């Protein structure tokens, strides 16, 4: 059910991203705005659907093969999540490098040309008070910059907000990666609780599937 829900939302964002952003504008400042939300949700939803099918059908038909496949897939995902958490926590610089390699070219190619991507990033930068992924130079040579000859409004504000450095176009905000990382640290308890809950569900799923597998052996 959760896989189908995520898949449906992913398709909705792909077909009509504008209305999704209008409805969930406040949420658009989350980490998911750094990546392509629609394809991310579609991939995750499809994976959850496959896993759910393996588990439910395998349990109903008492299939040892499907139950072992279910256990193996969940175990792989569990290990991958732990590895990703270690990379983010210990190798934050590497995580930023990987994101920069993917997101920065996308901003330079499509910001100002792709209305959906442009709107999502505008909302993100206004909500998080940041500019680009690393800094304002992410928008250099973008369709917007080539057309307007200046950096976008959310990047240039006055006040006590964290700035990258003075620029001839005004005081420009620092990148979103640092700001989002700070938000995550501020809400570390919530993030840790959600991560622990997901981990507990995955461990429970593996335990139940292995129990059923062993019960079939006894039969």
UniProtKB/TrEMBL annotation:
Pfam families: Tetraspanin. The chain crosses the membrane at residues 37-59, 66-91, 190-214. It is a multi-pass membrane protein. Keywords: Glycoprotein, Lysosome, Membrane, Transmembrane, Transmembrane helix. It is found in: Lysosome membrane; Membrane. Belongs to the tetraspanin (TM4SF) family. Interacts with SLC19A2. Interacts with NTRK1/TRKA. This is Tetraspanin. It comes from Podiceps cristatus (Great crested grebe).
């Amino acid at each position: 059910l959760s896989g189908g829900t995520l898949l449906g939302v992913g398709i909705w964002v792909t077909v009509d991203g504008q209305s999704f952003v209008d409805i969930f504008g406040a949420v658009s400042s989350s980490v998911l705005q750094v990546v392509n939300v629609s394809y991310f949700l579609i991939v995750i939803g499809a994976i959850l659907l496959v896993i759910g099918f393996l588990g439910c059908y395998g349990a109903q038909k008492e299939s040892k093969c499907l139950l072992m496949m279910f256990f193996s897939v969940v175990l792989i995902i569990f290990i991958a999540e732990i590895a990703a958490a270690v990379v983010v926590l210990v190798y934050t610089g590497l995580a930023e490098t990987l994101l920069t390699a993917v997101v920065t070219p996308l901003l330079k190619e499509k910001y100002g040309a792709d209305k959906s991507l442009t709107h999502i990033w505008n909302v993100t930068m206004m909500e998080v008070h940041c500019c680009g992924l690393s800094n304002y130079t992410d928008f250099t040579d973008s369709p917007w910059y080539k057309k307007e000859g200046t950096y976008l409004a959310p990047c240039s504000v006055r006040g006590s907000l964290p700035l990258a450095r003075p620029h001839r176009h005004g005081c420009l905000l620092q990148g979103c990666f640092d700001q989002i990382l700070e938000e995550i640290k501020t809400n570390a308890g919530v993030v840790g609780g959600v991560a622990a809950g997901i981990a507990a569900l995955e461990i429970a799923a593996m335990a139940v599937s292995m129990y059923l597998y062993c019960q079939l052996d006894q039969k």
